[in-house]
């Protein structure tokens, strides 16, 4: 997903910087429509990863509580689960951070295209 987002952003950035000024308006509108469609896909991806991140963080908290509440004989298993959920939660937080920032950059690029097509729009 990261590579796909980066490719999409690179394509649109290149279009804005190099081609948009000389391109026909209908071409720019097509690029904008496709870009908006992809933004909606990325928003959905971002929402799914937010939910997954939330649940891994919840599982981590539950397992930390279980670590202190369960008998000592379960400490090793509980400790391993705490480490597993901690690693997964941290990984998902970093991935969600990337998704969030990328989508916000896409909003700004979309606004650039919109302002180019209609300078009166305050995007």
Task: Give the structure's gist in a few sentences.
The protein is an all-alpha fold and 123 residues long. It contains 3 helices and no strands.
Q: How many structurally independent domains? A: 1
Count the helices. How many? 3
What structural category characterises the helix and strand content? mainly alpha
SSE order: HHH
Low-confidence stretches: none
Portion in strands? under 5%
Instruction: Characterize the largest beta sheet: strand count, sense, and whether it forms a barrel.
Output: none
Assembly type of the shown chains? single chain
Using the alpha-carbon principal axes, give the shape. Answer: rod-shaped
Helix content: over 70%
Describe this entry's structure for a reader.
This protein is mainly α and 123 residues long. It has helices at 2-19, 25-69, 75-117. The chain has one domain (2-116). The longest helix is centred in the middle third of the chain and has 45 residues, at 25-69. The protein starts with a helix and ends in a 6-residue tail after the last helix.
Feature tags:
single chain; mainly alpha; 0% strand
Write the layout of secondary structure elements.
Layout: H1 2-19, H2 25-69, H3 75-117
């Amino acid at each position: 997903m990261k590579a796909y987002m980066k490719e999409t952003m690179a394509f649109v950035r290149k279009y804005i910087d190099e081609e948009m000024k000389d391109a026909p308006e209908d071409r720019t509108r097509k690029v904008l429509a496709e870009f908006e469609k992809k933004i909606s896909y990325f928003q959905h991806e971002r929402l799914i990863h937010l939910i997954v991140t939330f649940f891994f963080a919840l599982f981590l908290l539950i397992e930390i509580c279980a670590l202190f509440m369960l008998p000592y004989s379960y400490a090793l298993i509980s400790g391993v689960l705490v480490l597993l959920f901690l690693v997964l939660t941290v990984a998902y937080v970093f991935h969600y951070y990337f998704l969030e920032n990328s989508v916000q950059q896409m909003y700004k690029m979309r606004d650039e295209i919109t302002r180019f097509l209609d300078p009166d729009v305050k995007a």
